[in-house]
Fold this sequence. Notes:
Blueprint: E1 2-4, E2 13-16, E3 19-29, E4 37-44, E5 50-56, E6 60-64, E7 67-77, E8 80-84, E9 91-94, H1 96-99, E10 111-117, E11 120-125, E12 129-136, E13 150-155, E14 160-164, E15 172-176, E16 182-185
Antiparallel strand pairs: 1-6, 2-3, 2-6, 3-4, 4-5, 7-8, 7-10, 8-9, 10-11, 12-13, 12-15, 13-14, 15-16
Amino acid sequence: MAVNANELRKGQAILYNNDVCVVLEVTHRTPGNLRAFIQGILRSIRTGKSMDVRFSSAEKVETVPLMTRKMEFSYKSGEDFVFVDPENYEEVTVSAEFVGDSKNFLTENSLVTMTFVEEKAVVLELPSSVILKVANAPEGLKGDSANNVQKTITLETGVEINAPLFIKTGERIKVDTRTGKYMERA
Length: 186
């Protein structure tokens, strides 16, 4: 299906130079004495590389259908991550590079949303917050109770975050996956 370039949105998949690309960012620009154009950042599904592309606002762009599925993180196989579709138990293996910083919040059986284009995983979305167990929390210093004092703790995934002094090893806490910050006890 062809659409005008000015209808492009973040997260869409398009056909560009005979390659399927995911739109990472779209900006509409109207310079003073020139015609309006659309500036986009696209990521090639085949190569994984990002590129900066400029379209005229009336240019036709071919869109590619996306499929979104809830997936469950199952296990790590070497450097790769294996996810399972809870409905049909179909496995999808993706690279550590694809998972990126999301690995800091993935525990066994945690649910994620995965977007596919032509049966290839292109986007991994975590829920906005996750509940993780505190693996190591040093004791707070006595008398160190000034306003909002925090300490560095280690979570079960190995990531270190700042949390209030009262958090202890073994407790479960809620963490914001977008910022990596402590939210509350769980």
